[in-house]
From TrEMBL:
It comes from Imtechella halotolerans K1. Required for maturation of 30S ribosomal subunits. SUPFAM superfamilies: YhbC-like, N-terminal domain. Transmembrane segments: none annotated. It is found in: Cytoplasm. Residues 20-76 form the Ribosome maturation factor RimP N-terminal domain. Belongs to the RimP family. This is Ribosome maturation factor RimP.
């Protein structure tokens, strides 16, 4: 079995052991530098990173193959990359840019592997008289139509 296949198998086993964790990125670079980025349905603790790291490192033989290993959590300020992250962020506010250039900021009401349902507010003309009113709208957005989505951190 190739080194990369062995590492990926060990990584998959570590993530299966704690199914609240999921993979965002995995790569093996020049000089066998292994980089693993994980996220979790309930966030990622240092202990989560340690357990994934140990599950990989303790099952590889440095006599056979020299390597370095880095296991990190996905930063909250980074754009969402996988569908499971949308599910994780139900109830939070996202700032979303769509393929047609539209930008929305709203609450995630629901999410699946294919789409996200968001509620957002817009200003529209009053039905009668002058002026505008704030209206809450819901929109179903296919994940394939999202260029970038970031969680907005509110204090």
């Amino acid at each position: 079995m190739k080194f990369e296949e062995k590492v990926k198998k060990l990584l998959d086993e570590a993530l299966e052991a704690d199914n609240s964790l999921f993979l965002i990125d995995f790569s093996i670079g020049q000089g066998n530098v292994i980089k693993v980025v994980i996220d979790g349905d309930n966030g990622v603790s240092i202990n989560d990173c340690i357990s994934v790291s140990r599950a990989i490192e303790h099952n590889l033989d440095r006599e056979e193959e020299d390597f370095s290993l880095e296991v990190t959590s996905y930063g909250i300020s980074l754009p969402l990359r996988v569908p499971r992250q949308y599910v994780k962020n139900i109830g939070r506010i996202l700032k979303v840019e769509l393929t047609d250039g539209t930008k929305l900021e709203g609450e995630v009401l629901n999410a699946t592997d294919q789409e996200v349902v968001m509620a957002y507010q817009v200003r529209e003309p009053k039905p009668i008289g002058k002026g505008k009113i704030t209206v809450t709208k819901e929109q179903i957005i296919a994940l394939s139509n999202i260029v970038e989505a970031k969680v907005m951190i509110k204090f």
